[in-house]
Amino acid sequence: MTAADPSRDPLIDRADAAIGIGHVGQEKAAEVVAAVPESRYRALDWLRTLADAGQWRSFERLAGVALHVHPEGLAEILISALASAGSRGEVNVEDLVDMLGELRAPEAVGALAALLHERRESDAPFFPLSVKSVQSLAEIGTPEALTVLRGVATGADWPNPVRWHAAEELGIEEELGYDEDEMLRP
Questions:
Q1: Are 152 and 166 in contact (CB under 8 A)?
Q2: pLDDT tens across 63-111, in order?
């Protein structure tokens, strides 16, 4: 196997085939581990190999398995993928953001805050990536994450829908006098 062609590793291929189609939740991850037991302890190495080879679809699918079977160390790999492939549109950024929130990875706060800033205008008019980033920061819930959310909720330079969702995650929308209908109007 070479780092440039991970498909030569039959275990990666077997794990990818075992995933099948659809969302990779805890049940599907357990099925993959049952079919390919090595995925329990090799998933992170496989993700690095797939990222190095630019095989992002397989990366995304296997990341869903890793989330449930080997989360320790996964955040660093997801943050790296977000920074490199995410900026080029090669990976589903929303899924990576969701995973980082589900991991409650404090090391992801900086990357999520940067993503919010980068996409604050281009994510209009419905701001799906911004809302996911806000939700993931709330799931992480560290003081640093909450500070980012407060800055978004109270910052006049943020689009109203993003401000609303940040305020709602913090539970301060009423305190700020926000009207949901007004704030979410496109």
A1: yes
A2: 999 999 978 899 999 999 998 876 677 889 999 999 999 999 999 999 9
CA distances 37 to 7, 23, 25, 26, 154, Å, are 18, 20, 17, 15, 48
- What pTM value is reported for the model? 0.90
* Mutual angle of helices 109-119 and 143-154, in 10-degree steps: 20
DSSP class of residue 125 equals T
Closest CA to 184 of 156, 153, 162, 155: 162
pLDDT tens readout for residues 107-158:
999 999 999 999 988 899 999 999 999 999 999 999 999 999 999 999 999 9
Summary mean pLDDT of the chain: 92
Kind and range of the H or E run holding 65:
helix 56-69
CB within 8 A of 79, min separation 6: which ones?
100, 105, 107, 108, 111
Q: What is the DSSP letter of 2?
A: B
H helices then E strands: how many in the chain? 11, 0
Residue 2 clears pLDDT 70, i.e. is over it: no
What is the three-class DSSP state of 5?
strand
Asked if 127 contacts 159 with a C-beta cutoff of 8 angstroms, the reply is: yes
